[in-house]
Write a structure and sequence with these properties.
481 residues, 22 helices, globular
Length: 481
């Protein structure tokens, strides 16, 4: 509930740090209105009609439905539910492994802080939740619960239609399969055949259901193809390594230090599955900041179990465990669904009643300092004809406000637009050689870019272009007749 309340307060940040929400709202609304899932592009003029892989369509429907219900407040409420439920499950897993509710709570809150650097109103929040659910099912199989395997394909059926990072599920499955193989090889598995059968059945059926999406097995090419493109990955901030000079990454650094300390302090041998998950996702988190939240939710239960091991081996730890025994009773009393449901309903009713549950006066809204809100307001009464060249971070917002009357040059879906068009966009926005030819090639009739951009200044001094609108955030220019 604490994490849920924190996300509610951070609503404006969730909406404005990233520019993709508008695109998700536009596509989700299109699906709800038309009853069909687009498999060819109808959102841009640069790649109109090209095959489109809807790898987030179900998430986009959920976001659009939340927007229909409560506007952007509904989107924030949905994000708060996803993140709150994720860390409620992380806490339960951590408490179950450690038997120490206070220690589990501390580790869970640290994991939440580490993951918060990527709390955005985007479909990846579904992946964060499903990673926790998926890992819990695999852990149940490892512990010999033979009926647990059937949950894997059910989760994967949802995952493959919610977000393209469903491949993370198979990365985690491989860690458990490798752990099972190691136990079988060294002869330490009590029921190696049963666990192996559960892993094999769950994994095989999960792999099969990945074809149950609007484009079938082509989804794999989209999900894996982007990561192989060095240019696109290098030009996407969330794929770069974390910058530990930024305060937002410090909780991740603390998680790493906690893992190193517990690994050296505990005399207990870590399960091979846990070691593979911890080291594997740590490596991925150091390589790309978008993997940090996955490391956080995967590592928290493992680290909580290590804390219990360290405490049981020391005198002060035994005293701590006696304190934990008193807290355990309170933890059992607070379990249940009553309080979470009540808090969620209270937040929803407050939003419906027009209460702003945010520390800023504007409430949950797109910021006119970040997005071209006033410029698009002007376009509502002064629609432009012809093709637009728009700033990349604003593509989603333009789709949200202007589509289908206007189609964008590009937006945040770089896995669809690809390297060639992204290079052309960069050529224009940086005024590289041949930038005017790119505008001519795509028959651009008007431009919407930041007021302080180099492109805006270049076009303002060009007699072939005329400024028709300007404010402190955005400028609109059109080709002179």
């Amino acid at each position: 509930m604490a994490v849920f309340a924190l996300v509610i307060l951070l609503g404006p940040r969730l909406l404005n740090v990233d520019g993709d929400l508008g695109r998700h709202l536009a596509i989700g609304e299109h699906i709800l209105r038309s009853g069909s899932i687009p498999t060819s592009d109808v959102f841009s003029h640069t790649m109109a009609g090209d095959p489109l892989t809807p790898h987030e369509w179900l998430s986009q429907v959920a976001v659009a439905a939340a927007f229909r219900l409560l506007g952007l407040d509904g989107v924030v409420l949905l994000c708060a539910l996803l993140i709150g439920l994720t860390f409620a499950l992380v806490y339960r897993a951590a408490a179950a492994r450690s038997g120490l509710p206070l220690a589990a709570l501390a580790v869970t809150l640290l994991a939440a802080a580490a993951s918060s650097l990527h709390w955005l109103a985007r479909p990846h929040l579904f992946t964060l939740l499903l990673v926790v659910v998926w890992t819990g099912l695999l852990e149940a199989i490892r512990q010999g619960k033979r009926s647990g395997w059937w949950g894997l394909p059910l989760v994967m059926l949802l995952w493959v239609n919610l977000h393209g990072a469903f491949v993370f599920g198979f990365v985690i499955w491989l860690a458990y399969a490798a752990g099972w193989a190691w136990r079988r090889w060294v002869g330490r598995a009590e029921d190696a055949a049963g666990v192996g059968r559960g892993l094999a059945l769950g994994g095989a059926l999960s792999l099969a259901v990945t074809a149950l999406n609007p484009v079938g097995l082509k989804l794999w090419a989209t999900s894996l193809g982007y990561a192989r493109n060095a240019y696109l990955v290098g030009h996407t901030a969330e794929y770069l390594s974390p910058n530990f000079h930024d305060v937002s990454t410090w909780p991740f650094l603390l998680l790493i230090l906690a893992a190193l300390w517990q690994g050296s302090a505990s005399k207990r041998r870590m399960a091979p599955e846990s070691a593979l998950l911890l080291l594997g996702w740590l490596g991925l988190g150091l390589y790309s900041v978008r993997h940090v939240p996955i490391f956080a939710v995967v590592s928290a239960p493992i680290l909580a179990g290590c804390v219990a091991g360290v405490l049981s081996e020391s005198g002060p730890g035994l005293a701590w465990q006696r304190r934990e025994a008193g807290v355990a009773g309170l933890d059992r009393d607070l379990r249940g669904h009553t309080w979470p449901i009540a808090v969620t309903l209270a937040a929803g009713l407050a939003f419906a009643g027009g209460v702003r549950l945010t520390p800023v006066a504007d409430g949950n809204a797109f910021s006119p300092r970040i997005f071209p809100v006033q410029a698009v307001d002007w376009l509502d009464s002064h629609p432009q004809s012809g093709n637009v060249f728009n700033a990349f971070p604003w593509g989603g917002y333009l789709l949200f406000r202007l589509w289908p009357d206007a189609r964008v040059f590009i937006d945040g879906q770089t896995d669809f637009y690809g390297e060639a068009l992204t290079r052309e966009y960069e050529q224009v926005i940086t005024l590289s050689d041949g930038w005017q030819a790119v505008l001519d090639k795509h028959d651009v009739g008007w431009v919407l870019v930041p007021a302080d951009s180099r492109l805006a200044r270049a076009l303002q001094s060009d007699r072939a272009w005329a400024e028709i609108y300007a404010d402190s955030t955005a400028v609109i220019l059109e080709r002179a007749p």
